[in-house]
Amino acid sequence: MAGFQVTEVQKALKGANYPMDGAALSELAQSNGADQELVDALKGVREVDGPNTVMQELKGQLGGPTDG
């Protein structure tokens, strides 16, 4: 797995209304145009109460390549 940029996750979760579970997060990310890999990763996230908790849940999957 390549990893995700924090900004990529933030963009994917724009408009999130916490608390949200993985199913709702992945649906939102998909509607915001996120990559399928990120959508799939979010499906495994437990219910979270905010963006910081999402980042904690994705720990180990963050920090992808910074050059485009």
UniProtKB/TrEMBL annotation:
Which InterPro entries does this one have?
A: DUF2795
Q: Which domain of life is it from?
A: Bacteria
Q: What is this protein's name?
A: DUF2795 domain-containing protein
> What is the protein's species of origin?
Vallicoccus soli
